[in-house]
Amino acid sequence: MQRFVGKYLNKLDAKGRVSVPAQFRDVLGKQNLKGFYCSPSAIQANLTGCGEDFFARIDSALQNLNPYSPEYAAQSMQAFGDASYLEFDTEGRARLPDELIAHSEIRGQVQFVGLGLFFELWNPEAFPTARAERIGILRQDFQRKAPPA
What we know:
Blueprint: E1 7-11, E2 17-19, H1 22-29, E3 35-40, E4 47-50, H2 52-62, H3 70-81, E5 84-87, E6 93-95, H4 98-104, E7 109-114, E8 119-122, H5 127-145
Antiparallel strand pairs: 1-7, 2-6, 3-4, 3-5, 4-8, 7-8
Helix pairs in contact: 2-3
């Protein structure tokens, strides 16, 4: 299985189109996709992009929930109800819908960040703060689990 890895900074044009990194397009192509699923993050001002493999994992996890429960409704709305399928044009670009651009506050450039099974799209000015917060979480977790010296 291929993974989404690395960071890429690409331009968002006036029509809301962004070139999706070739490495990410290759991973999606191996999942028989000519685009990707994109949804607003429920926890931060960024977007989540993924292919069929990640959607299958979400589907599988949802099978463990009561389909009439509030948790199921919330998680399936986030994963599926708020998602858009964005097709690539002949140049490997995808058009970000206006509501996704507004949610992520993306202006002019898009920071792509690979996270293995999925990837994120960020306003490049907001990403360093989020990255620092995540590194802080890793450090806290490491310190909590590290054996005493």
